[in-house]
Design brief:
Blueprint lengths: L17 H18 L3 H20 L5 E5 L6 E9 L9 E2 L1 H7 L11 E6 L6 H28 L5 E10 L2 E5 L4 E4 L15 E12 L2 E7 L3 H11 L1 H4 L8 H9 L2
Parallel strand pairs: 2-3, 7-9
Antiparallel strand pairs: 1-2, 2-4, 5-6, 5-8, 6-7, 8-9
Helix pairs in contact: 1-2, 2-4
Length: about 260
């Protein structure tokens, strides 16, 4: 599923249509569910995307804040202003008396405080909509990567099961369901014949964060692979009736047969 056409259509006014506002919330829920990430993060990304698009409308010098109502999808756009005794830039600064005219609650503000000036809603043009879409897509991808990393960092030092997806330069790429892992050729059992489509188990010895996402490293040659596999497969070991002191105990057991 993509992020949807909720405001990406050319010259489509979404900010004044109730149906579009509710659609925005529905899309946030659907994307959050599909990607298994927090709905709040999706909506925050939408706010950031709309704010970036608004800068192209109101000027890059403006500091824009966007607020999306989590219940009804209402969108409010504000210009952030700092109270100054002698403002020099009307896009970023304001006198206290002018701030009070915007909102009577600002009478309790002081020099240096921030105030929010409401801005009118607007129709997204093609470029502004594309800018917003890029920001949201990037934030969603980053959140998905973070979620995947957090899911698998706890699986380090365990046995994982997956389907061999493909072979690359002697390395084996394993499909774990929601992501892929790699068994480097030096982590394979010598002379083992592995083919795409095979279901295999391997020991997860490392999970790393990398710019393109988490990298999961598996091994079938690691000493702990047999140890962990025996614990899984032999009930007496799992129950603690038999103790494995080291992986060499397994090698001795195999050689004595």
């Amino acid at each position: 599923m993509g992020l949807g056409p909720f405001f990406f259509g050319e010259n489509k006014s979404m900010l004044n249509k109730r149906a579009d506002k509710l659609e925005l919330l529905r899309i946030a829920e659907a994307v959050a569910l599909e990607k298994s990430i927090d709905k709040e993060l999706i909506i925050s990304s939408m706010e950031t995307g709309i704010a970036k698009a608004a800068k192209s409308k109101f000027g890059q010098d403006n500091e824009i804040k966007v607020s999306i109502n989590r219940d009804n999808g209402d969108i409010e756009i504000f210009r952030k202003l700092i109270i100054k005794e002698k403002p020099e830039n009307s896009n970023t600064e304001i006198k206290l008396e002018d701030a009070i005219l915007i909102n009577q609650l600002n009478k309790d503000k002081s020099i240096g405080d921030e105030v929010l000036q409401p801005l009118p809603s607007f129709d997204f043009g093609r470029i502004a909509a594309q800018t917003a879409k890029q920001v949201i897509s990037f934030n969603v991808r980053e959140a998905e990567r973070e979620r995947q990393y957090n899911d698998f960092i706890d699986k380090k030092d365990t046995i994982l099961s997956g389907i061999v997806k493909r072979l690359e330069f002697g390395n084996v790429i394993v499909d774990l369901g929601r992501t892929e892992a790699i068994i480097q050729k030096n982590e394979l059992i010598p002379r083992e014949n592995i083919k795409p489509g095979d279901r295999i188990k391997a020991y997860c010895y490392d999970v790393r964060k990398e710019p393109r996402g988490q990298q999961i490293f598996l091994s079938r040659a690691h000493p702990k692979f047999m140890e962990k596999l025996f614990v899984q497969e032999v009930p007496e070991i799992y129950d603690g009736l038999i103790e494995i002191k080291s992986a060499s105990d397994l090698d001795k057991a195999k050689s004595s047969k």
